[in-house]
Design brief:
The chain is globular. The chain has 19 helices and three strands. Helix 8 runs parallel beside helix 11. A hairpin with a 2-residue loop joins strand 1 and strand 2. The chain has about 475 residues and is mostly helical.
């Protein structure tokens, strides 16, 4: 190799290192999330995301200012335009994932596009597994739908437009979280750009806003803990209480992230009395909305899966009598299905899923170990607290599915999906934060995160194009 070639390679290397060193984690996330989020929405066939059909119905119901569903024939739902049901009929969950011979045809696209809204021609439409959700997770989608209903937009427009707007709003919330956190900016970027995370963000599922709010809540706690904030102000209190309230109203199971507030030092409030009052006030305010909604929505509770004898109240009685047995079952379930849940957690769809899952896991682990900031001190006590909260969340997630989704007295837990662990992931990765392991290269972490994200998301898009069409 001659001198000219060596000089050229050296120049390219310096150029690349300079590029990666200047990368902003929040901007990297935002641009990649908007680009691939749009592609996900465009390529992914309708109603292939779990519960997307019933989420769609609930979103439309809220756009008509019907906040509380009705019960008919022991099913919770509402009277919605018949065209919405017709729009969903050509699709069922996993019809494309499970069968490689089934493709999204042009005739199907023509058919669903041709369906008019006919808003006054209504039929009772059940959606009992989402009827109990508060309006908060669907706020963005329902407002968008309300606007579209003014022009009697076709169901296909009412399906895609709210997904796009919800994706943009959730992406902006995550962008704000990455920007505000003093540590783990690239860890959060890695988590936010996993295929599964982006698949949920690019939907009107309740998980979209749940993931965004959980990231922001943890990020703001870390911001309050840092040396950037000499003391907690009224503004901080309002932001934490509001975020906690919204999180509790999106998916109540994540209220168990609220004790992460204890990561904020007592010194930020001046004395122990003010500190305890601050923590108690934020948690209490966060729980008020959830408690009110639980009381208001209780009368419309119907079993989500009546055909398999699912009943929350009866299952709760069983749990009270067999607490240790159910706890043992939860532990066994994690021991048996941990690998499956982690694959679902990353969302390495279909091809190279095992290899991609391992690579993403290694990158998240490595970035968590080497990403540092002098502005935050994470003590052993902090790491222990964070780990305990993560364990409690693991337990509560499985318990909630056992109570609401599994057969009464079942010896297995149904409905567990890896995506449920994305909102609590930062609590686990905080345990890896340390002051000893450092990277000598400023470009290493940005390069690993951005390149792995682009590769994983590109593979997902390519796989979907060949699989679905």
């Amino acid at each position: 190799m001659n001198t000219t070639s060596l000089n050229s390679l050296s120049y390219i290397k310096k150029l690349l290192l300079s590029f990666f060193e200047r990368l902003s984690p929040e901007r990297t996330f935002l641009w990649l999330a908007l680009l691939f989020g749009f592609l996900f929405i465009l390529i992914h066939p309708p109603f292939q995301v779990a519960d997307e059909k019933t989420q769609f119905f609930r979103m439309y119901e809220l756009s008509e200012f019907h906040f509380i569903s009705i019960v008919k024939h022991n099913k919770a739902g509402d009277y919605l335009p018949e065209s919405l049901t017709k729009f969903t009929e050509p699709f069922f969950l996993d019809q494309y994932y499970a069968n490689t011979n089934v493709k999204m045809s042009l005739s199907t696209l023509r058919y669903i596009y041709s369906i008019p809204l006919n808003p006054n021609k209504k039929v009772f439409t059940p959606f009992q597994n989402t009827a109990l959700y508060s309006p908060i997770p669907y706020l963005v989608g329902s407002i968008t739908t309300l606007f579209l209903r003014i022009f009697e937009a076709r169901p296909i427009i009412i399906f895609y437009a709210p997904k796009l707007v919800t994706m943009i709003v959730s992406a902006l919330v995550i962008y704000s979280a990455i920007k505000v956190t003093p540590i783990f900016k690239w860890v959060m970027t890695t988590l936010a750009l996993m295929p599964m995370t982006l698949d949920q963000v690019a939907s009107f599922s309740a998980d979209s806003l749940t993931i965004a709010l959980s990231f922001f809540f943890v990020a703001y706690i870390l911001f309050c803990k840092s040396s950037i904030k000499p003391k907690i102000t009224r503004k901080d209190f309002i932001i934490l209480a509001l975020t906690g309230s919204l999180l509790a109203l999106t998916k109540p199971v994540y209220i168990f992230l609220l004790p992460l507030l204890l990561l904020i030092p007592v010194s930020k409030m001046g004395n122990v009395k003010k500190y305890l009052l601050f923590i108690a006030s934020v948690i209490s305010i966060s729980l008020v909305g959830f408690m009110i909604w639980s009381i208001v929505s209780a009368p419309i509770y119907t079993p989500a899966r009546p055909y398999v004898f699912v009943d929350y109240h009866e299952q709760l009685k069983f749990f009270e009598k067999h607490t240790l047995d159910v706890t043992s079952l939860i532990v066994q379930d994690y021991a048996s299905h941990a690998d499956t849940y982690f694959e679902q957690f990353t969302g390495a769809f279909m091809i190279f899923h095992i290899l991609l899952t391992i690579i993403l896991a290694m990158i998240m682990f490595l970035v968590s170990l080497v990403e540092k900031s002098s502005k935050v001190v994470i003590s052993f006590k902090d790491r222990l607290l964070s780990f305990c909260i993560w364990l409690i969340c693991l337990y509560v997630i499985s318990l909630s599915l056992y109570l609401s989704w599994s057969r009464i007295g079942s010896s297995s837990i149904d409905g567990v999906q890896g995506r449920y662990y994305i909102p609590i992931a930062l609590a686990l990765f905080l345990c890896l934060y340390n002051d000893k392991i450092r990277s000598s290269s400023k470009a290493l972490v940005p390069m690993l995160v951005s390149c792995s994200a682009v590769i994983a998301l590109s593979l997902t898009v390519i796989t979907w194009v060949f699989h679905f069409y």
